Amino acid sequence: MTVTVGIVGAGFMGAGVGRALLDGGAHVVTGVAGRSERTRRLIADAGLTTVDRLDDVLDAADVILSIVPPAAALAVAGEVAGAVARTGRTPLFADLNAIAPPTVEAVADLLADLDVVDGSISGPPPDRSPGATVYFSGPRAAEIAGLPWNGSIEPVIVSDRIGAASAVKMCTASVYKGLGALMTNALATAHTHGVVDLVVGDLGRMLDPVDKVALSASKADRFVGEMLEIAATQRDAGLSPALFEAVAEVWRAVATTELAHTAPEDVGRNADAQAVVRRLRTGELAS
Asked: Signal sequence: where (predicted)?
């Protein structure tokens, strides 16, 4: 029997996840009401079935995956709760967003009529570079892990506790995106002192700073909410939230620059360092 997976928020990541499931034999459906032209193109390129309303997604789906910007996770959960009330449908729901454990617990509270699986994605969209790891936790985590991922995604079951999979993401993202913020500020500072090429050459012995900065900038707006979720997670662990509140401010400033206006799927490799920094030194980051 073919499983039907509904994706709420299919975009750069969600369309890629949907493509992996589609290639594995699932039927994948997503709503397009209010979505941008770019998002509709990503969905069409992935070959996903489209419907208009969220209610239509619930009517069709056995499983719902939420893949939205971190700051929107709770609002989307509330919208799904409303659709559940209207349709009477109770599909298994998995939140795959980059949010703190208490936030995913709040999602589960909002969706009290549904069984909820906590999930987190580590890696790029599988249609861009197969091999992402997706962590799952909760009593029904094995059911989401058992979807036909077609080898493009490695599912890992963490535990039966809601919040555990999100904790993994908060820890790993703090390093990946925190390092990206360090590189971004380092290159911006290097530009001020006229030493960009020397800094890139030195860092390039261990890292790929220019491509990292260019790709991260294209997702900077989304990173702001994620960094605040990391700050909340570290606060709950007894640590100061100040570090990642500051990192959130770095990405907020980057989001105002010219460099941030490139869609992530359009960011090439081996970017020119001087061109990247010139586009970075606009907006609030230059002030």
From this structure: none
Question: In this structure, what are the phi and psi dihedrals at residue 241, rounded to the nearest 5 degrees?
Answer: -80, -5
Token pair of 161 as six digits: 């506790």
Let me know whether 175 and 115 are in one domain.
no
CB atoms within 10 A of CB 89: 19
Question: CATH number of the domain that 218 lies in?
Answer: 1.10.1040.10
Question: How far apart (Å, rounded) are the C-alpha atoms in residues 120 and 153?
Answer: 12
What do you get for the CA distance between the two ends of the chain, in Å?
58
Mean pLDDT of the chain: 94
Residues 6+ apart with CB under 8 A from 59: 87, 89
- Asked if 156 and 180 sit in the same domain, the reply is no
Q: What are 229-277's pLDDT values in tens digits?
A: 999 999 999 999 999 999 999 999 999 999 999 899 888 777 788 988 8
